[in-house]
Each structure stands twice: as C-alpha cells, then as structure tokens.
Amino acid sequence: MSTMIKVGMADLKVADFPNALTTLGLGSCVGICLYDPLTKVTGMAHIMLPSSKAIRKNENVAKFADTAIAELVSQMESKGAKKSRFYAKIAGGAQMFSFSSQNDAMKIGERNAEAVRMILKEMGIPIKADETGGNFGRTIEFYSEDGKLLIKTAGKGIKEL
Amino acid sequence: MSDQLNLNNSIVLDVLREIGNIGAGNAATSLAKMIDKKVDMKVPIVNVLEFDEVPEMLGGPENVVCGIFFKIEGDITGSIMFVLDQSSAINLVDLLMPRDNAEFDEFTISALKEIGNILSGAYVSSLSGLTNLKIKISIPALAIDMAGAILSVPAIEFGQMGDSVLIIQNEFIETNASKKVDGYFFLIPDMESYEVLLGSLGVTL
C-alpha cells in the first residue's frame, strides 16, 4: 500500500518507495522534487522565498530555496540515497496577478524559480523537468516508483512529466 | 529598526484588529450605498494563522476562489487583497445586479473587479482617515484559481516577516435577500510601512 504524503507551504518531506509526495495549490511558491532512481528515495520541498540570507527570521529552513534544498539532500542521504544520482523536477513559480507597471516584488515566482535552478546547478543536480511560470496554480504529485511528476491545474488539465 | 513583525504582540494585534473593524465597516457602508439596500455585517474576525491554515478557511488549497489584488501607494506601500469563494463572488454580483442563472462569466469578472475596487477603496480610505496618511490603491488585478495559489501571494509577503499571516474575515449579508457574502481582506503593508502605519497611531514596534 502506498501512501500520499502531503507537503504543506514552507514545508519539506522525504519518502521511501512505494510512497508518493504531493503539495496542493502551488502559486508563486516553487515545488522542488528530488529523486534517486537507485534507492527510489524521493524528497519534496514547497519553498516560498529565494534566499534565507536576506531575512533575519529564517529558522524555518523549508521556507527558503537555499536552505530547503540543502536540508532535503541531507535528509535523503541519511536514508541511503546518494546526491550524485539525484535529479530534480520543479514546478510552480507562477505570477498570479499581473500589472502593466511591474516591480520586482511582483515577480517573486520568477525569482523563486531562478534561485532554485541556480542552487540545483551549484549542487550538481540536473533538472529533468521544469514546469514553472505562467499565471496559474498547480497541484503536484511525485511518485517514488519511477520519479514521475503529475501536475494538475484548475481548468488546464493534467500533465505528466 | 526591526525586520520582523511581531504578530504575537497584543497591542499591535489590537490596533490591526481595530483597523480591520473600521475598514470593513466602511466597506459595508459603501456596499450598502452601491446596492441601495441594507447590508448587515458581522464583527470582522481578525486572525493570525499559520501558512497552512489559511487555505483551509477557503475550503482547502485546491478549492477555486476569486482574488482581487491591489497595490497600495502613497505614504505607505504594500498590497491589499480581497478573496471570496465562488458562491460568495456570485452572490456579491447578484446583490448589485440580480440575474437569473448566474454564472462565472466575463460579466461577473468585470463586476467583481469594480466591486473589489470600491470595497478595497473604502477600506483604504478609512485607514487613511484614521492615520492621516495619504494612501491610495492601484487598479485591480483579478485571478480565479486554487486557493493555495491565490493565497501564496499574501503568504509570501508575510513570509518575509515571519511565519504567520494576518487575515481579516468579513461577512456581509443583504438583509432582505439573505444572500451571504464571506469576504477575506489581507492588508499587507511592506515592513517599513508597518512602522509608519503603527507609528502614526502611536504604536511603536
């Protein structure tokens, strides 16, 4: 029996085969899924902000791209997975509201996605699927059996990556 | 200067609650004038919630809701968002323009933008009157999508300051038709603006 484990906002979880991970209603946040194909250990983080460095109140490591990815890798490795085998699939980073005169604060989704890509690159984790941007919400499900990522949207159907 | 808003500080919370009360009262009055009917309003509920609890108020993260978003400009900067579930959104438009077989169509959307504009404007103008600060709102941006996705916008803004979200819940009821509208306001001044806002009311962070 496999269980679907929920990851909340500013939260991260690691799962073993045959369990799956999900996070519901991603908007400007980014869902980061990591997978080790050999051990089938999976990890998912739902980050809200690009970096913990600019913010003093940063105890919640799952809230920031930099600290969340590091924590996810370390938790997965403690379950016997190896970073050198990891690949990533990412989704979210939408811009839910748009104005003609854009300021930086409004592009937080884009900045989140960019930070995630950069950190994964620094850590040598390849990105196998990148479903970020747009102006709509996404629910994601990540399966430990084969690293399949399912993306559901309101009114735009289901996509498999 | 602190870069952290202490939502556990009871004085700060009381002030924000009062701002919520007065703002919502003013919004209800505007709504009543607009529809030329008596509008009852329950005392707004001001809550400080964890990130995960916020979408639950609107039927869960995947429930489709309507968010109307404005930027705040002037002496303080930030944003204000008005969120409704779909039945409240349709009820609100129906109060203004009763129709048969109301649907979530283009007409509803443009009416909602306008109503959101008037309610949020009333909200902000009462805030402005209270604090003597010049505050105005931008044109509205509207999105209909999963509650989690819509609410990620205020959550991220609050996330820069702490791990909780301040939410002001209003319930408007048009007395005769007994059509209920549950609306949620998120008032999100930028961090520096919180100090200006609270300072203008004699509260120091």
From TrEMBL, chain A:
It is an enzyme of class 3 (hydrolase). InterPro entries: CheD-like_sf, Chemorcpt_Glu_NH3ase_CheD, Cytotoxic_necrot_fac-like_cat. Its EC number is 3.5.1.44. Belongs to the CheD family. Pfam families: CheD (PF03975). Probably deamidates glutamine residues to glutamate on methyl-accepting chemotaxis receptors (MCPs), playing an important role in chemotaxis. The keyword Magnesium does not apply. It catalyses: L-glutaminyl-[protein] + H2O = L-glutamyl-[protein] + NH4(+). Keywords: Chemotaxis, Hydrolase. It comes from the Bacteria. This is Probable chemoreceptor glutamine deamidase CheD. It comes from Fusibacter ferrireducens.
From TrEMBL, chain B:
Pfam families: CheC. InterPro entries: CheC (IPR007597), CheC-like_sf (IPR028976), CheZ_family_phosphatases (IPR050992). It comes from the Bacteria. Residues 11-47, 110-142 form the CheC-like protein domain. CDD domains: CheC_ClassI. Keywords: Chemotaxis, Hydrolase. This is Chemotaxis protein CheC. It comes from Fusibacter ferrireducens.
